[in-house]
């Protein structure tokens, strides 16, 4: 079982965060055997489909380009132009094959673990030039594994090549008796099929190497229980920090709420357990809005702030409880409480217009109209 530097066993599957960090560092599952097989098969397939046209075009080009006028032989500029045009034509003829190989090289590289273009993955790593680490890789268990894979590939290719020589030996020997062009075409066909057969044998090695590389990559990313706990703390935050954050958020919310109390038209209380501050602007609001509410110490603080700013405080227990439990902070009151709140606001407006204004009092209505579904004991 894999262990970390502290001796703890890596028994836990890698988290998405660890997999993402590994990808950013360029630590991705790779199989060189898969890349090799796909490249060889692509080359054989490209030769099989495009080889005839490429050979014919190159042969025609050789006949044309190797015929040079006598005066051009002694003209340096003409020779350079002749060479450059020949090179351009050869690249143009080989371009489809090169494009196929480039696409296959990219696809084979990303087919197993994808790609990573992060700066960390592309950055130069001096430790890769450390000869001691190179020796440890050569003589470690990975080096032994690579040696065994190389030996297996050599034996497979050797056996397959011997079988092909035994089956196709007569055809290869018969090429000497064929005309030149026909012999060259026949030789190209035989070599192409031989390449495809030899490459197909390596599929067996890739079929074993791919699952192993995936398993080994997952094994390297495994984590200890402590690493999982530490990552969880870094991601989610410790309970103490989260508790402190919640406390600060509540304090800030209460501070903002208390700043709205002086703007209220009335504070309805239980009278001691609950307090709800209401504000109504007929020009801008469709219904009264709860600008502050609280229970216990918060309710006492709301009453105190209201007293400091001459905001009427009226004791109406059923209405206070109904408002507290049915209306969110900053929301308009329910339609079922319109009449009850309207009576309270009308009473407050009458108080403000009277000769003597008392900040605290008892609502004169003994039975405010509160629907049964909004009443709370």
Walkthrough of the structure:
The protein is α/β, with parallel strands linked by helices. The chain is 64% helix and 6% strand. It has a 5-stranded mixed beta sheet, with helices on both faces. A hairpin with a 4-residue loop joins strand 1 and strand 2. The longest helix has 42 residues. It is elongated and about 125 Å long. The two termini are 62 Å apart.
Helix and strand arrangement:
Blueprint: H1 16-24, H2 32-65, H3 70-73, H4 76-110, H5 119-122, H6 131-139, H7 141-174, H8 180-221, H9 225-236, H10 239-260, E1 266-269, E2 274-279, E3 289-295, H11 297-308, E4 313-315, H12 317-326, H13 338-353, E5 360-362
Parallel strand pairs: 1-4, 4-5
Antiparallel strand pairs: 1-2, 2-3
Helix pairs in contact: 2-4, 2-8, 6-7, 7-8
Sum up the structure in keywords:
377 residues, alpha/beta, 5-stranded mixed beta sheet, 64% helix
How do you describe this structure in short?
The chain has about 375 residues and is of the alpha/beta class. The protein is built from 13 helices and five strands.
